[in-house]
Amino acid sequence: MELDMVFLYLSAALAVGIPTLATAWAQSRIGPAAAAALAEKPELTVTVVLLIAIPETLAILGFVIAVLILMQGGG
Q: Where are the domains of the chain?
């Protein structure tokens, strides 16, 4: 019983941790490119904001999955 709870919490932590690391990696690549693009064409502001915001949904969805895992497991 106790080992099941360990795996439940581990899976919830991985459901948040892995997408968050992927989001950080994506934003680290998008940020400098977006700054360079804005330096040359300031009218790309909306596009740059969208490109920064889209990977963030990955972290939010990871959090939602973690909550669902914890609710299903009774934790």
A: 2-73
